[in-house]
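Q: Give me the 3D complex with 1,3-dihydroxyacetonephosphate.
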Amino acid sequence: MAGNWKMNLNHLEAIALVQKLAFSLDEQTYEKVDVAVLPPFTDIRSVQTLVDGDKLNVAYGAQDLSAHDSGAYTGEVSGAFLAKLGCTYVAVGHSERRQYHAESDELVNAKVKAALRHELTPILCIGEVLDVRKAGEHVAHTLAQLDGALKDVSAEQAAKVVIAYEPVWAIGTGEVATPDDAQEMAAAIRSRLGELYSQGVAAGIRILYGGSVKAANVGPIMDQADVDGALVGGASLDADGFAAICRFDQS
Ligand SMILES: O=C(CO)COP(=O)(O)O
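A: Here is the predicted complex, encoded as structure tokens.
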């Protein structure tokens, strides 16, 4: 269960949220669920200090990284720096990056490789806009994004990637995909991973659903055979709400 905070919460607010979140989660939940937060870059050092100091069971990561490791790339953040800060995860190819920063499948592919180079787990985001779904092209479109993002990524590396299916029409709209929609795409993604790599690799890759997930709707989504978790935006900004999402099987 990963919380993508997007451009919300400064470093002081980050500390308060992670403290409260960790306090709200119990051993039973940690045994079943990997819990992660993806704060803005400027919060990560503070989150690291808190998580290390209090030995919290919450992993953390970033929302993006550079395709490059260092050099004259003003404003970019290297995967090497994120690894040094103890990040476990980094989101790659989020639809807001694709939409507002014109990130192509080629760039997303380079960023997946950059993350893997620095032993970060990429959370690779893919998914279709509403027009594509209305045209019935959502599976082909999303699988093409998957193929592009994983070009020249070996089976050994792919085994470390987390895939997040996030239909763009369900992000921040309150319009959650039905559990059947989530399962249809998660199954298609797993099947394509099986073709690209092997059934064994495909079975082990974690596939998340993202788009208007909250405590009230997470249960039936998590019941789907091929959905292993959720990438949560708005509802992860509230510690109690996100904790309830993380306890999906106990609520
Ligand atoms: O984009 C998302 C997570 O990356 C989903 O956002 P919401 O949960 O706010 O719809």
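A quick observation: The pocket of 1,3-dihydroxyacetonephosphate is lined by residues 4, 94, 166, 171-172, 210-213, 231-235 (CB under 6 Å).
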